[in-house]
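Quarterly update from the structural biology core.
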Amino acid sequence: MTQVKRYDIFDIRLQAKAGKPFDTPLKARFAAPDGTRITVWGCYDGGDRFLIRFMPEQEGNYTYETLSPVPAMHGITGFFQCTGVDGHGKVMPDGLYLKHADGTRHFSAGTTCYAWIYQPQTVRADTIAELEKGSFNKIRMCIFPKWYLYNEQ
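Predicted structure, tokenized:
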């Protein structure tokens, strides 16, 4: 049985041909261990790929079923087990601040990567390697180009 940590990511990856993939409805209905039903929308993931991403919040066994007008993505069922949490859990609001599920305060420290898609793969790999050495726990990506002397072509 597939196991996923509490507050971690469970993905349902599907493949299908769809005429207008960005307009193709896709969702999954999850049943939590306590019987709660949770509906999550999926999205187009490029090529013939679609994705439904879910974060379990209860320990125990989950089931799911997909819903879509595309036959290849409709009625797919499955299950997984949610086990203990790693770390402090999900981040949520606490008045003007943020906290983790276990009540621990969360402090965001981030940076921004500009013109990412215009950088060579080697520069991106070097950037990721440097960021892994630091203490940032979030990153903002700017997808539109900015004018800088070094990215002028």
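Residues 6 and 58 are 7 Å apart (CA to CA).
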